[in-house]
Design brief:
The protein is mostly beta strands. It contains 1 helix and 27 strands. The N and C termini lie far apart (41 Å). This is Pirin-like protein.
Length: 343
């Protein structure tokens, strides 16, 4: 396919937090090479020299984040947007102020609508006492439109076994695999997102895909509607070309949305890419920490409401709860409904 000078709208090197376009607020790529567990869900290693409670330095290849003894994010509030947590390796233990809990793992996705306000914790329990505990996940923040800022909080589990996985062969028989977390491709549709999500309306064309190109494979991202925000994040591998143009390792590319885009892996190893795409919301965005609203006054109201109500309070004994050594993957929702992955 001939190179189009209008295909790429922008390109930048990625850091810890990735740039996004409306309605996506940001995306963070967590990759931590934790040592074996100490038997209490934390690392079997000294924590000396780390800024405990605010450990983001990546010392020795891993971080405690806001956790004091267990890595992760103890209880904290959100209002006005959604979190999409895409786990590639390791475990996440969820607890929230609605009384819901869950554990999810490699290949699973939790899609949470914070809406009017929720507290939750996201802890990364280290379960293996005999070998290293690698963690990799993306957390994507997706905005809510003004009409949905105060919906009731809710989360949906997209279990790995139920996420559509498509494979495509190029003319040389080389494979490209696509995991369909949101949107549709090749006649397949992703599972339903939460009911109040911007993604719940097909007209908004929200796409969240993990694309894997095997060695020397070619594949085209299909054209969608015009004027969608389309971002491609090249997070693993080397020697990717996009419509014939070389994309440096660990770079993000903003693309036009109404043309086919040809990807080619020139290397002998697999390449992995995250794609985010959507119709923009096109409303004012005011963000302060964990709150995303339309005006400064609404941000002030969010802080006041949280101070008064705690968004339902915190019903758990610990602010960094985990769900034990023997728990498998599960979710128990605020209404008491339990669910488990289909095997």
């Amino acid at each position: 396919m001939a190179t189009s000078s209008n295909t790429i709208l922008g390109m930048a090197k990625m850091g810890f937090q990735w740039q996004t376009v409306d309605p996506f607020l940001f995306c963070v790529h967590h990759e931590d090479f934790y040592p074996k567990s100490n038997g209490n869900f934390g690392p079997d290693a000294s924590l000396v020299g780390r800024e405990i409670g605010q450990d983001f330095a990546g010392k020795d290849g891993w971080r405690m984040y806001h956790g004091e003894s267990i890595p992760g994010f103890p209880s904290h509030p959100h209002r006005g947007f959604e979190t999409i947590t895409v786990v590639r390796s390791g475990f996440v233990d969820h607890s929230d102020s609605m009384g819901a809990v869950g554990r999810y793992s490699a290949g699973d996705v939790q899609w949470m609508t914070a809406g009017a306000g929720i507290q939750h914790s996201e802890m990364f329990p280290l379960l293996d006492q005999h070998k290293d505990n690698r963690l990799e996940l993306f957390q994507i923040w997706l905005n809510l439109p003004k009409k949905s800022k105060f919906v009731r909080p809710h989360f949906t589990m997209l279990w790995a076994e139920s996420i559509p996985k498509l494979s495509f062969l190029d003319e040389n028989g080389r494979k490209t695999h696509v995991e369909l977390i949101a949107g549709q491709l090749g006649g397949e549709k992703a599972q339903n997102p939460p009911p109040d999500s911007w993604a719940s309306n097909p007209e908004h064309s929200v796409q969240v895909w993990i694309i894997q190109l095997e060695a020397k494979a070619k594949w085209q991202i299909p054209a969608h509607n015009k004027n969608l925000g389309r971002m491609l994040y090249f997070y693993r591998g080397t020697q990717l070309t996009l419509d014939g143009q070389t994309i440096p390792d660990y770079h993000q590319v903003q693309l036009i949305s109404d043309e086919n885009i040809e990807l080619e892996n020139l290397s002998d190893n697999r390449i992995e890419i995250l794609l985010l795409e959507s119709k923009p919301i096109q409303e004012p965005v005011v963000q302060y920490g964990p709150f995303v609203m339309n005006t400064r006054e609404e941000i002030q109201d969010a802080f006041q409401d949280f101070q008064k109500t705690g968004f339902g309070g915190w019903p758990w004994k610990s602010h960094e709860p985990v769900h034990g050594t023997n728990a498998g993957r599960f979710a128990r929702h605020a209404d008491g409904r339990e669910e488990f992955p289909s095997v």
